[in-house]
Amino acid sequence: MSQATYVIAPLPQPALAVQGDSKMFPVRRIWCVGRNYLEHIRELGNDERNPPFFFAKHADMIAPDGATIPYPTLTKDFQHEVELVVALKSGGLNISADTALDHVFGYGVGVDLTRRDLQTISRKKEQPWEIGKSFDASAPCGALRPAAEIGHPAKGKIWLSVNGAERQSGDLSDMIWNTAEIIAKLSLQVELSAGDIIMTGTPAGVAALVPGDEVDCGIDGIGTLRVTIGEPT
Predict the structure, then answer these.
(1) Where is the Fumarylacetoacetase-like C-terminal domain (predicted)?
(2) d(Cα 209, Cα 162) in Å, to the nearest integer?
(3) CA separation for the pair 222, 109 (Å, rounded)
C-alpha cells in the first residue's frame, strides 16, 4: 500500500539483525515466558509448583545490540533478566511439541528489562504486569543465529555481567519447559505466526541496574549482547 492509504505515515517495522546476513528479521509480536528457571522462581519467593505462563511486550520495544537505554520512568528498582530468544518463521494454532521446532527460524540473546517494584505492586493487587514489563526499550535483543546453521540448542551456558562482574549464570538445560514445549503451549493460547519472537525465561541472579552500567550477556553457541544504561530522559 502507498503512504497515501493511511491518515498518518506508517510506523517503521521493528526488526532484528541476522548474523552473517544483510537482511533483517521482521518482528511481529514479542511473547515472554514467566518463571521458567527453578532458581529464579525461588529467588523471587514464588511458588515453584506453578507452571510458567506468558505475557507480552510490544514489538517496538526492541533495542539493538550496542544501544544506550535510558533509565526508565516511575521505577526505583530497574532489573535485568537475560533470556534465550526464539524467532519463528511460521506458526499456527495447536502446534504439537513434536513439530514445534519446524517453525523456528533461529535463536538469539535478549534481556527482559523489568521495573521490578512496579511489577511487584501489580502482582500484589492482582493487576496486569504491563507497567512493570512493557515500556520503551525494555526488550534488547542481539543478532539471530539461524537454526539452519546451529540446530536447536538445548544446553549451553547463559550468562549476564554488569561492569565486568557476572551476576546471572545458568544453562539452557535448566529450563523447566524446553523450546518445543513453550511453542506448543503458547499456540494453545494464541495463533503464532512468522515474525513472532519468544523470550524463554531467565536464570537466577536478577538484580538492579543504575545509569552508567555496562551490561554484557550471552549464550554459548548463539551470541552475545551489550547495552549501556543511560540517564533518565
Answers:
(1) 30-229
(2) 8
(3) 7
- Side chain identity at residue 69, one-letter code: I
| Residue 58, CA distances (Å) to 3, 129, 133, 188, 190 in order | 23, 13, 10, 20, 15
Gap between the Cα atoms of 164 and 156, Å rounded: 20
- Cell numbers 532484528 correspond to 16
**Global pTM value:** 0.94
- Cβ-based neighbour number of residue 181 at 10 Å: 15
Residue whose cell numbers read 511460521: 90
Three state DSSP letters for 82-128: EEEEEEECCCECCCCCCCHHHHEEEEEEEECCEEHHHHHHHHHCCCC
Query: Each residue of 170-193: pLDDT tens digit?
Result: 999 999 899 999 999 999 999 999
Q: Is 155 strand, coil or helix?
A: coil
Mean pLDDT of 142-166: 98
| 20 CB burial (10 A radius; 0-12, 13-18, 19+) | exposed
**Residue 215 and residue 86: Cα distance in Å, rounded?**
21
Domains annotated on the chain, with CATH:
11-230 (3.90.850.10)
Question: E strands along the chain, which residues?
Answer: 15-18, 21-26, 30-34, 53-57, 62-64, 68-70, 78-79, 82-88, 104-111, 114-115, 139-141, 145-146, 157-162, 165-171, 197-199, 214-219, 223-230
- Strand locations in 112-205, DSSP E? 114-115, 139-141, 145-146, 157-162, 165-171, 197-199
